[in-house]
Amino acid sequence: MSKTDPTDLLCQARRQRLSTQEQRALAALLRASPEARLADILLCGFERESPIQRGDDALSSRLVEQVLVRQLRPRTQRRRLFAFAAAAAILGAAGAAAALWVMPSSRPVDAARPATPRTVASLPRARGFASPPTATPVSPVTSTSAVVPSPTGEAPMHGKLEASRYRVASATLDASVPAETASELFARANLLRRHGQSEAAIALYRQLLGKFPATREAPPARLALAKALTQSQPGAAIEQYRLLSLDPGPLQAEGLWGVAELARRIGRTELEARSLTELLRQFPDSPYADVARSRLNDDHR
Amino acid sequence: MSIYTGPSMLRLVRLVRPSVELRLGAHDELRPLADAATSGDLVAMRTLLTAMAPQILRIVRRVLGLRHPDVEDVAQECAVELIGALKRFRGESSVQHFTCRVALQTAMNARRRLRTAKRSIPADQLCDADDTTHEEPDAEFRATLRAGVELVRQLCEELPSAQAEALALHLVLGHTIAEIAAICDAPIETVRSRLKTARASLMKRAWDDPRLRELLEEP
Hints:
The complex is a heterodimer of chains A (about 300) and B (about 220). Chain A has about 300 residues and is an all-alpha fold. Helices cover about 60% and strands about 0% of the residues of chain A.
């Protein structure tokens, strides 16, 4: 196996099997490649999902016993079941044949109605192996949301991006090209932000939130706007976090945490405490919960 | 051990334990057991399942989540599926590889099914592995981890099955390209191509998530 392949380097790193040279190569890769950083964090995240737990030995035993019990179902019982199923099938077929014999079809053929096509999705799922995805597959990078290389301009993990992506990236930075949809606005705002054009990015985030407040891009756009405003306009940033915390979407906890963090930074301790309390009430198991409890306990001392 | 060397990122990701390594090209010690189990030898079946149960649990937990209430049920489903699928096993890969593939597909199908059924999960069962032994750097790092994990799970439901399988084998289970090729019985270049396409989709979604963007933008 190739240890120089970035994929393999990351995997082998988790098994602690890298030479000094490979460790240096990995460190350089993590500095240079956003994709490698993401992969590394994801490998870490999934490792955390499967530590050995107390009681795993008993759980494994139960698994084995339950499967064996199913395999041990008496053969005679299986024979009876088979015979019953066969009899039912024969009777059903006989009944259908009798119905056809007695009552020839009098329904007019509906030539105008096309047969329902049997799509892949309607086929019965093969046991044990992949079923067709029920949702539309995510398309690869499209022209309206090109993956932009890292700000350093260095090539990402798998070689240089195609030239077309660079052309598309530059096109969407052009303000004279109007963005039509929330998705386009969001992609353009993100591009501007990555290119250091914060003011232009802020304007586009605001435009998106004004024109498309109920789209799926709105919450992440609001979070991005809040982060972008943090240094220059902390009051406005707090307001955006507050609005995010009121939006019953996937980033509500981030909104409450953002209010608490900024409030702490600018010395508004009461606002911080209220936000942390609300965060614990609504999201007691969020990643922020432990720190929130700790801060509230410290403040009460 | 993976070390972030940027000045703003002093996060030390500690390896909990080595991931399961699949020895490529080695003699398959489990093959005789699998053959005997297939022909109805219950003792062999018990031994095989006992050997594979930890791997199945690991896979199911990573696909569903550590605290998902259906982990045990889905693990049982995977084990049953494995016994059934062994009848079709022709030795294209090792038994361990085969188990990995069957368990991963079954767990991913189960996740899809559970989400379609809108199975509601009590909030107190959705937490991360808060009782792990390694140090927690900070809350935002944990939020980043969780956002990334959920993104991959969601993406695996949406991608074409071959890409989803390659992505899951790499990121969810931590396998190398050669291991993925052996598990899927596919050429290495095919696996590379699938991973490349899947990663492109992943990066696009990650850039759109403010919780992950800072990680991606940091040098």
